Amino acid sequence: MKSSLLAAALGRDVDVRRPRFLTRSLQHGLVGVVALLAAVSAAAAPVVLSNPTTSVTVNGGEAGNGLVPFGGFFDYTDLSVGATPTWSIDPFLRFSSGSTAVLSNGAAGGFGSPVDLGSGLVGNSAVTGAVTTSAVTELAGTIARTTFTFTAAPGTRLDGTVFGFYAENDILGFGDDTAAFTGSIAGGDLALFQYDTVGGGITVRLSGVAASGAALTAFGSGIWTGFGTALESGDLTVLSADGSNFVGGPGDLGLALAFALSGDSASIIVDYTTQPLPPGVVSEPSGIALAGLGALLALIAQRRRSGPPSRG
After folding, report:
1. N or C end of the chain, less CB within 10 A?
2. Distance (Å, rounded) from C-alpha 109 to C-alpha 312?
3. Where do the structural domains in the chain lie, given as residue ranges?
4. Tens digit of pLDDT for each residue in 155-193?
5. pTM of the predicted structure, to 2 decimals
6. Which of 59, 250, 269, 17 has its CA nearest to residue 143?
7. CATH class of 2-306
8. Alpha-carbon 105 to chain mean position
9. What is the dihedral of CA 174, 180, 184, 190, to 10 degrees?
10. Pairwise CA distance, residues 247 & 61, whole Å
């Protein structure tokens, strides 16, 4: 299914069994097509944040679609490896009635066009039902950090409303990614990861902090498209509080966090970034480092054989 979407966008057949570099090239081609369409559309107005290592294009609600199609709240590019892992980044609300509102879908009442607030900040806002949501995105090093603020309409409360952050990633292609998590909700140190099972290269890291009026209650990973479809329909049973139904792959995966909102207002900070290696993997020492270590060990051995220096 995802290959057919790529083919339709690029006007060519896509074979997911082709070499990894070709798959990545096609993905970048699709990003280029979407960027071109955005440039010629009067309504589209993304805002780009960038530094020497990272570029983040904030689309707000310009993608105009749900959790499954390509395009979302922002596109993230790791400039150090020239890779764009984001297929669709979608914040959403799930109300006590079971209905949902995808905030990255401006066509259905989500965010509109992003606003450049200056000083490296990009703003978005939406009113969905009795909830006003504002989002401020910044680039802190390699971290795309978004602070979401929720305000209940006068005479109402946020209780029963869940905020979800969905990240469908394609790490150097799709179909053979691995997902993992470290820490826990109870420990306050939960982080979700996704990386390419075969090629390595980069690892996506997703985490979130409930600043006020909210609590992180569930998280998960699942297979595209069913995972995103379930969340968009309001089915949160694909998530869990302890990772008991977390899908590690390999497969075409997405990650998600869910926060319960309460009171009159709430605030949540979500961080999306990349790192070179999966969690728990230590990079191999370089040849130079190994040579230096060998020389140091040889020197220690020589000193042990010769004994302490004479005080004569």
Report:
1. C
2. 87
3. 2-306
4. 999 999 999 999 999 998 888 999 999 999 999 999 999
5. 0.80
6. 269
7. mainly beta
8. 17
9. -50
10. 28
